[in-house]
Amino acid sequence: MNALIVIDYTYDFVVGNLPVGQPALQIEDRITELTEQFCQDGDWVVMAVDAHDKNDPYHPENSLFPVHNVRGTSGRELYGKLNDVYNNHQEKIYWLDKTRYSAFCGTDLDLQLRSRGIRNIYLAGVCTDICVLHTAIDAYNRGYGLTVHADAVASFNHEGHCWALGHFAAAMGAQILPPD
Ligand code: ZN
């Protein structure tokens, strides 16, 4: 079994309070297709979704970014077609609240992967050079095999996006799909 980890593809990160914008909109179809495909193939699908508490004075992102992905707000809902797929396959998809960039930080993701015997993870979502990158680093350090779907990750920072894709391959041995 493999795992697809879809990172932060929410309203706030696509078009809301902290928007990636056009590059995120461009991956909507592919990210949705991948989620459907992994569900149909009997693989494990994780929606790793940033969660902030309202008025949390201690969060390190407070000084870095505008308020986003606050628990209980529509900004935390999955965006567009991905939300439809999630609603159709809820029993097959694991919703993972995360409070830092990495989906491994402060969550039970590693335990859930281990209990299923999963050694290879596939990454999609936003931002390529922030939350996808930090999740990839933690996966690499824990010995997981990595595949990054270059056509299903995006960032507001084009240079950062390109740099991160190179870094996944060169420094973590990740497979980048589709191949050049
Ligand atoms: Zn955040």
SSE inventory with pairings:
Elements: E1 3-7, H1 11-14, H2 22-26, H3 28-40, E2 44-50, H4 80-88, E3 93-98, H5 109-115, E4 120-126, H6 131-141, E5 145-154, H7 158-172, E6 175-177
Parallel strand pairs: 1-2, 1-4, 2-3, 4-5, 5-6
Helix pairs in contact: 3-4
The structure holds zinc ion (ZN).
Plain-language structure description:
The protein is of the alpha/beta class. It has a single domain, classed as 3-Layer(aba) Sandwich (Rossmann fold), CATH 3.40.50.850. Helices cover 36% and strands 21% of the residues. It is built from seven helices and six strands; from the N terminus they run βαααβαβαβαβαβ. It has helices at residues 11-14, 22-26, 28-40, 80-88, 109-115, 131-141, 158-172, and strands at residues 3-7, 44-50, 93-98, 120-126, 145-154, 175-177. It has a six-stranded parallel β-sheet with strand order 3-2-1-4-5-6, with helices on both faces. The radius of gyration is 15 Å and the shape is globular.
